[in-house]
Amino acid sequence: xxxxxxxxxxxxxxxxxxxxxxxxxxxxxxxxxxxxxxxxxxxxxxxxxxxxxxxxxxxxxxxxxxxxxxxxxxxxxxxxxxxxxxxxxxxxxxxxxxxxxxxxxxxxxxxxxxxxxxxxxxxxxxxxxxxxxxxxxxxxxxxxxxxxxxxxxxxxxxxxxxxxxxxxxxxxxxxxxxxxxxxxxxxxxxxxxxxxxxxxxxxxxxxxxxxxxxxxxxxxxxxxxxxxxxxxxxxxxxxxxxxxxxxxxxxxxxxxxxxxxxxxxxxxxxxxxxxxxxxxxxxxxxxxxxxxxxxxxxxxxxxxxxxxxxxxxxxxxxxxxxxxxxxxxxxxxxxxxxxxxxxxxxxxxxxxxxxxxxxxxxxxxxxxxxxxxxxxxxxxxxxxxxxxxxxxxxxxxxxxxxxxxxxxxxxxxxxxxxxxxxxxxxxxxxxxxxxxxxxxxxxxxxxxxxxxxxxxxxxxxxxxxxxxxxxxxxxxxxxxxxxxxxxxxxxxxxxxxxxxxxxxxxxxxxxxxxxxxxxxxxxxxxxxxxxxxxxxxxxxxxxxxxxxxxxxxxxxxxxxxxxxxxxxxxxxxxxxxxxxxxxxxxxxxxxxxxxxxxxxxxxxxxxxxxxxxxxxxxxxxxxxxxxxxxxxxxxxxxxxxxxxxxxxxxxxxxxxxxxxxxxxxxxxxxxxxxxxxxxxxxxxxxxxxxxxxxxxxxxxxxxxxxxxxxxxxxxxxxxxxxxxxxxxxxxx
Length: 732
Fold this sequence. Notes:
The protein is an alpha+beta fold. 22% of the residues lie in helices and 23% in strands. The protein contains 16 helices and 26 strands. The protein has a 5-stranded mixed beta sheet, with helices on one face. Strands 19-18-22-20-21 form a 5-stranded mixed beta sheet. Helix 4 (228-238) crosses helix 8 and helix 5 crosses helix 6 (267-279). The longest helix is centred in the middle third of the chain and has 15 residues, at 314-328. The two termini are 62 Å apart.
């Protein structure tokens, strides 16, 4: 069993104990474990969508979780089991969230249960019996899809996934009546108009709405749990008139090839045809929404990659589905051997027809009649100049959106912050810049300099996590692990960037992130955090409680300040940065903090103290700003004041990515809108001439070997190249 831990908490703990590199502890002891950010709103067990390992959470083993919780407390515990998907072992993040009703009290709200998709009917029954306090022999478990008894789950060893139990599926615990009998029967209306002759065991599509559609064929497909990719593909094919008419009319049934070893015994075609009949009924039947359960089950049976409820690519499913339908409907029973067709200088139309005729000797179906095309591939030998032209079949084209060179680039979203002294205000721009994949932070700095015209020697780059700067990047730092959703890359225009990269407590003696010694400059690197008091509601299992805590908010501000200074001078400098001529030192207080924004003590820096700081400021100093009560409301109505307790907007236009266009509204010489792709551009990229790499090298049949090799015909002796002595014919 594996347990999830919030990634942000894990990062703070790793820093505190030096877990990643074995260095000594640094920073502050983290608070209790808080996994609430991983949960869906209103749930104590269901995870929110699209969380990723490393970005949002990490996995720990059971013993490790128990140890961490004994040290720090908190939760909730989020155990997940390992399962097999096809030939791959994975940790099952989401499982199935089921809404379980009780037959003796159907008016009550259902109980939410989270269970593995690999769990069996027996395991679900045991969980439900424990929840409702009933005995297993006294109840039955029903698939209560659409709040109707859809299917009785009466095979204890069968997995829920095999029973087509879906995310948010309604389930029913049927209890015996007063006479000790079970009375429920399967709803006879389920699957009307769409029961496939090739399905069994209740593997049917289900009508979920009989309201009249706005027009024929406008039928919605219910999301069965991460099946948007499948539904969008089905809607595209459903609205391809020749294809849907072929299937909805039932004409496909006469062409099913049950014996094709490359097909699916006609079951995939039957399942698709059943769905098309339901979406395009021949009579006056009113259907406006369908749950494609039968088709989903058959897709998972035909290709285990599509089993379960993981996200997939629509084009992958489309490609597999068209190929699978073709093989199920292939008119060729015995496929002959055919050779590839070469042009040999003949006209294209002659070569193309010959290639297609040869292809149809092995592949001939209604699917290919509708979707088949040919690629013309031209290869030129760089040695002899021979030109080879071939025509290859296809059913769909995957078009590129970027050139091969652009594919080698990595784009980064960066918030660029600088102080505009002329207008006495801070400016924040959201930028997207591209650098080569695997490049270090120095190249990102250079790209930011190009995009903003800020000198590269004035730019410092950091990573923000929950309103504190988790780390600064020197030029040699790797960017491989900063593509996260819980943190933000932020860059500042400062006088001495190296002063911010300096770290008094490097993670290890060999760290390349931090300077070995502080830079010898007369100013200190100042990191300014904003902190407020807020009320937080924490939920754990079935209980919740309120607490008041101090929390950081907004983006930090960075600036350089003379080391020889007094607290009063520091207050005045900060007041000008927060809002020149609008903010005065009486409106806020500052505390010295650690790198995570936690004050090192309860001491408030005295704003009236004019004595010089003994020995001057440290090379790098973290400060926390807290507004006094009377100033909190006053600053809300002021423009150009930093640190207001509100979502901060981003000023200025976003500069284009390197090589990009300046405005999406302008048109270039080709008549295309800059910043937008046109289909013709994608086709042009697809057909662009390119030089083959050594891995894709092509053998030229016309080239001759020009290097002679002396091969003796008599007295050939290879004994020096043979490990063992030659043996005579009798083995001696």
